[in-house]
Amino acid sequence: MEKQTIRQEFFTGERALFHAQNLCIYDSTFADGESPLKESQNIELYGCVFRWKYPLWYSRHITLRDCALFEMARAGIWYTEGISVEDTLIEAPKEFRRCDGIRLKNVSFSNAAETIWHCRNVGMERVTAKGDYFAMNSENMQISDLSLYGNYSFDGARSVEIRNSRLLSKDAFWNSENITVRNSFISGEYLGWNAKNLTLIDCTIESLQGLCYIENLVMKNCKLINTTLAFEYSSVDAEITNRVDSVLNPSSGTIKADSIGELILEKDRVDVSKTNIICRAAD
Questions:
Q1: pLDDT tens-digit profile of 88-143?
Q2: Are residues 67 and 92 in contact, defined by beta-carbon separation less than 8 angstroms?
Q3: Are 57 and 73 in contact (CB under 8 A)?
Q4: pTM of the model
Q5: Domain with 8 in it: what CATH number?
Q6: How far is CA 211 from the centre of its chain?
Q7: Domain span at residue 92?
Q8: Which of 156, 95, 90 is nearest to 128 (CA)?
Q9: Count of the separate structural domains present in the chain
Q10: Contacts of 147 (CB under 8 A, 6+ apart)
Q11: Rounded (10°) CA dihedral 221, 226, 230, 235
């Protein structure tokens, strides 16, 4: 079906384009008025500005290019299926909740608090986000070139692959399952607690009491810098390419490193026979 074109309009009032379908909207402003595109379908937006709450709820098959969502466009995209966002600035918090099929490319979130919650089938490329609780309880995510500034990220996330990214995030990956991170930098206290099947490949990690309480932690060709009291009660298969500052009571597995500054194995807390420690400097 051919789409109707709208250019340089200024929309106000609640539900300005409620239930709209098959539109291409260019260089338009959605000003005061909640839910302007609620329950819309097959909408393309180019160079548009959103200034008020809840612009895209219960929508389907949405494209945004070169758009801007200002702070009061908060909680803007919920319960939406099939949305592609590219070259867009998002100032509003709480974007993307219980959505299915999200594609983000060259997107900046200046206030990503509580953003991408309970979402499924998410693709992200060259995204920058600043805010706590990013991607909580989301699943099936493919992420590359993410720059994240915010604590408690990926809490409860499932089936996530991250590449070529930089995360400054305390308590990242808590309660998560089936997470793989490749060629990335992660800095933050208490990394990965209570995770299951966390795999880190070619990564650099900085973490106080990081990588503890994990079931099946795998690390390949990783560096640990300023990382202390690591691996407590974790089952681990770790190949570390430099020195580990300190290790505390891993539950089982193998840890290979150049050296370990302090190795704490308390027989009254763990079965020390279940963990194999290999220090290359001692070979």
A1: 999 999 999 999 999 999 999 999 999 999 999 999 999 999 999 999 999 999 99
A2: no
A3: no
A4: 0.95
A5: 2.160.20.10
A6: 18
A7: 1-131
A8: 90
A9: 2
A10: 127, 128, 129, 165, 166
A11: -10
